[in-house]
Design a protein that fits this description.
Blueprint lengths: L1 H17 L6 H26 L10 H15 L3 H5 L8 H30 L7 H22 L5
Family: Belongs to the UPF0220 family.
Protein name: Transmembrane protein 50A
Main location: membrane
């Protein structure tokens, strides 16, 4: 019975070591953010290929572009720049303003896609998939941005 217990404890110890996320957290956060970002753009590429410009206007792609710019802006600021721990001559107020601009762009893209979904694709005789896909694109890009920003740890 004792041999079974030590074997089980050894197995559980190995499982805990394998599942230790501290060393692999940055890798998994980057992979999750990349998959979310890719899926968002893949959905909207599907809509652009399936529906013509009569059903899905080219200007609706701007929401995804603004979400992508938000992704880049939000993740260009490190946490050390926000805390003023960096060794450069960066001002933490400027970093916080830049981060705020990034979040405003991301929320604006989300709000715009909700507005387009409600105003353009809520009629009964209109195909609703392009509007829902536009909303999902921006949700996935924004979630990917948050996963990449807050999922990683800095050393």
């Amino acid at each position: 019975m004792e041999a079974l217990r030590t074997g089980w404890d050894g197995l559980m110890t190995r499982v805990r070591e394998y599942m230790d996320m501290n060393e692999k957290r940055n890798i998994f956060a980057a992979m999750a953010a990349g998959v979310l970002f890719f899926t968002g753009w893949w959905i909207i590429i599907d809509v652009a290929a399936r529906y013509g410009s009569e059903q899905f206007h080219w200007a609706y792609h701007l929401f995804g572009v603004f979400g992508t710019v938000s992704f880049i802006i939000v993740n260009s600021i490190s946490n050390s720049q926000l805390r003023d721990d960096s060794f450069g001559a960066s001002d933490p107020r400027a970093a916080k303003i830049w981060l705020l601009i990034g979040f405003i762009l991301g929320f604006s893209a989300l709000t715009g896609s909700i507005w387009v979904l409600i105003s353009e694709f809520s009629a009964s005789n209109v195909e609703k998939y392009p509007g829902i896909a536009l909303l999902f694109q921006n949700i996935l890009i924004f979630t990917g941005s948050l996963a990449f920003k807050f999922g990683r740890i800095e050393e």
